[in-house]
Amino acid sequence: MSETQMDKTLPASEQTSGSEAAPRGDVVIEIDDVSFAYDGKKEVIRNVSMDVRRNEVTAFIGPSGCGKTTLLRCLNRMNDLIPTAAITNGEIRILDTNIYDPAVDVIELRKHVGMVFQKYNPFPKSIYENVAYGLRIQGIRNKAVLDQAVEESLIAAGLWEEVKDRLDASGLGLSGGQQQRLCIARTIAVQPKIILMDEPCSALDPISTTKIEDLITQLKAHFTIVIVTHNMQQATRVSDKTAFFYLGELIEMDETTRIFTNPSKRQTEDYISGRFG
Amino acid sequence: MHDVNTKVASGQNPFATTRHTAKRNEFIFAQVLRGATYFILLCAFVVFGDIFIKGAPIVFQADFPYINTDFFTKSPETLVVFETVDGEEHQLGFTDFTEYKAANPQVEIVKEHTHSYSAGGILGPLVGTALLTLICIVVALFIGLAAAIYLNEYSGKGKFMDAVRLAILNLAGVPSIVFGLFGLGLFCLFFPVIVPEENLRTKLAFELFGSGEFLAFQGWGTSMLAGGLTLAVMILPVIITACEESLKAIPQGFREASLALGATKWQSIRTAVLPYAFPGMLTASILGITRVAGETAPIMFTAALAHKDKLPWQEIGGHGTNVVFEFFSQSVQALPYHIYTVAARIPQSEYTKPMQYGSVFVFMVLVMILAALSVYLRIHYRSKLKW
Amino acid sequence: MPDNGLPHTLASFEAALKDARNHVLTMASIAQQNLDNAVRGLLTRNAELCNEAIAEDDEVNTYERVIDREGFEILMRFNPVASDLREVLTGMKVASNLERVSDQAESIARRARKVLKATEIPEIQQIEAIYETASSMLRDAIRVYSEGDVELGLSLVERDRELDKAHRKLIKDLTKAIERDTPNLKVYLHLIFIVRCLERAGDHAVNIAEDSIFAEKAADVRHMDIDEAAEKVGIKPPGSSSLGS
Lengths: 277, 387, 245
Fold this sequence. Notes:
The complex is a heterotrimer. Helices cover 35% and strands 23% of the residues of chain A. Chain A has one domain (3-272): Rossmann fold, CATH 3.40.50. Chain A has helices at 12-16, 68-75, 106-112, 127-137, 143-156, 160-163, 176-189, 206-219, 232-238, 256-261, 266-272, and strands at 27-37, 43-53, 57-61, 86-94, 97-98, 113-116, 194-198, 224-228, 241-246, 249-255. In chain B, the strands form two sheets. Chain B has a three-stranded antiparallel β-sheet. A three-stranded antiparallel β-sheet of chain B has the order 4-6-5, with no helix packed on it. By secondary structure, chain B is mainly alpha-helical. The mean pLDDT of chain B is 81. By secondary structure, chain C is mainly alpha-helical. Chain C is built from seven helices and no strands. Chain C has helices spanning 11-43, 47-78, 82-117, 127-147, 150-180, 185-217, 226-233. The longest helix of chain C has 36 residues, at 82-117. The chains are: A alpha/beta, B mainly alpha, C mainly alpha. The A-B interface holds A 76, 78, 81, 83, 107-108, 110-111, 114-115, 117, 119, 121-124, 133-134, 136-138, 172, 183, 186-187, 190 and B 156-157, 251, 253-254, 256-264, 267, 271-272, 276, 385-387.
């Protein structure tokens, strides 16, 4: 594919950004021929296969109801909450482990695969308690450990400077964008390997959106990020890879630059250039 | 400006109404709706006003401490009305009357007549109602909350769960007198007690490991516990529904966020749902209390007595764990039953009215205080917990 | 250009793209006309044609501005991606090349008017061959843009090489002629510049073709030989000396 692709040289900064984490590029999520149904019969995802690589941002795009959010929620088994929903075919391997194996504890899985939701949902607790929540339910009570984790997570989420003087204030008193970054800090605090984001900016104004996007680009150095977005410009801005879904099928997955300059599938082109319907 | 005015005046108003019937109907319906609303206000005004005017003088007095303390510190007793030979009329409680006679043997009493329960105060009924309500709310909250959590958080969907919900709905529709009879049959006549030996009331008994005591299904008799449990069963549907509504009001996002951070289901319910549902449950429970406190029928057969000299803690025999059981096994007076008694079961006369109105007045004030408390709590927590 | 299948859901986007595209095509036909008029004027000794070419250059300049503004607005308003993005960018680049072609035409026309005032020299007719090549290249480049004929586009690279060869030979001939016919020095110099302008027009035609190939195939084939370019766009290399249709 690289022959036909627009000549693209990675800036040096991008190549060195994965500093402390493992070298960017090995596969951390393998989705292998996965089908999924909410009711055991009607498949809303059909035979999807893809690899998600370490320290990359992978964007899922596609029209509503194409299965992108469903697939995202398969990755940390949030779909388990729906009793009849189940994977009907294939395997999802994260860090080389089939996450639907009976030996996998879903609680442990979710510690490794964090999630940020569409509607920012901080708890009606203080900023501090919001960030410390994940650690507290793991039974960590040591104040020094919690203090450090809270500070580091808020710094990583780019919120520390804005809230360091009012950690005891309610998380709900923050602006929408700050609340979403608080939710990201809360997720980071548990130190996951992978962060799933389900349309994290859809409820935010453009400036807050820019801040979150900037944050995503920074977080890439330490986490592998999968983001579902309706906003294609957002996908072009933040993601390395883009996967286009339509009617439950993965139509095309490729470098984002390639998808948005010269996709190989007609359907992808029609969707991203606004020719659907 | 002048131009416009002339146009309107000469019938060229572009906005002149064309739909006369619709306008008339609009007016009529608005007035009907307004009338219905004001009618409720009128009812409330008449009821409360009447009770206040006739009841307040009994409860309050002109001199310090401005409250008729006897009314709150004495239990009901028989009112004795008599005239002395000099034509002076006296009203005394039975105890006082006895003392009076003993102290003044020289006084010749004529025209003596008595009115049951119309003297003294309402301490006994107040205490009894408080205890019944307490038992009821502890039991109902525990079971109701547990059931609500299970229904809303754990149970799936299905025919069985539909049946459970239908059962709860139906339970809410059962008349209170039926609950009273049910309580009588189950708690008073059937529930097991530990007795030293079998007796006539025993229907079924098992000896407890050769200890010489028997677990006998002979019922608890008329008791606070039976009454409290009956009330609890009656209020359960309300509590379950209220708790479930409170749980439903918690955004799904809290649960998801918590689970996504690696919480177990129970952890997520305990830390991310219950704390925020609690105020709603509290409000609903308080409203439940006011309803339970006012019920007469369920306690009529299971717990309430019209007359009792002593307060519950004044006549306990037994010792050790038995004390607790003994305590809760007593029958009590209860305010609604007391009102029923003085209003419907004794011959009416002008002498019985003060007790009637005083009791009702106190009861209404209690209900209003609880309702106000629930409104206050709701406002207080709503401003504190917003999402 | 490309067969875009479905129309855009946003009708105003669809209309804006179509408008810009039509403007490029109109501009192309005027630029082509200018080039033809300028050279025809010289060959047929018709100064009127030359004047027309000079006058019409303004029209072309106006179109360039219009197309740039439209392209700019489409980028700003509709954030085009993929083929739409390539089409807008290509439209603007093609317009820029067409404007330069028209500039060359104007330049040829001005010199032609001077040549026409001087004594007629026989070498003038030698320009016809090189003009035919340049003009057909431009026509084909515009066809590549309008129809997306990638194969035709690639053939232009080869034809440009031949144009260069012919241009160098003609310049050499004219230089020799100057030595023979010094009194007509000025006329020969004008001719040399005219030949040079035609060669430039050929280069612009190639640019237009290459940009159009990019719009069609998202492949940048600039500055590479024809086999390499053919491989990159995924077609068989055309016959090495084919001059297209």
